[in-house]
Amino acid sequence: MINIECDDDFLRKSITVLFEQKKFFLKNYYSNKFFFNLNFYQQDDFLYCSIENDQIKFNLPKNFDEIFEKIYEFLSNKNINISKFKYYPFKQLIQNEDKISFLSEIQNQIMISLLLNIEEGIEKNKLIKNIWPKDKDIFFNKLDTHLTNLKNQLQNDLNFNLKFSSKSGILKLGIN
Length: 176
Prior knowledge:
This protein has helices spanning 9-21, 64-76, 105-116, 124-131, 140-158, and strands at 2-6, 36-43, 46-51, 54-59, 80-82, 85-88, 93-96, 99-102, 122-123, 162-167, 170-175.
């Protein structure tokens, strides 16, 4: 869900390894697609992290847990616009003005996967394996139940008419 960029290859690899240890949503978990691009660079005794025009600065040396916490907070305030709604993947919520719908972890994983694959859709098998990696059997009914619950929740909470289409095992998101 995030991409890490850095001119210093050692710094990029180090940050990537640390984020992977924290089980952070890096792009390799979602077929090299991402919502946010984190740019890191080090200058003198400072580490800088930026997304678009926003930047945070860390004095070095610093404990990675403190850096990670600040970056997580930084990312949590970033959203993706879906029609007239704002989707905050790190906060697991969708908002419209003063109304909010909180998503479960599974609902959030579904939204992430569908939004990252908005154009081409995602194979239902792949989505099921991403959400329930330890399940040996693939249950389409289980996924369909979660999709229905997500659709109903967003309709009830926000009057958000979320639509899904499925053709030849490919699930696509449709938004009105």
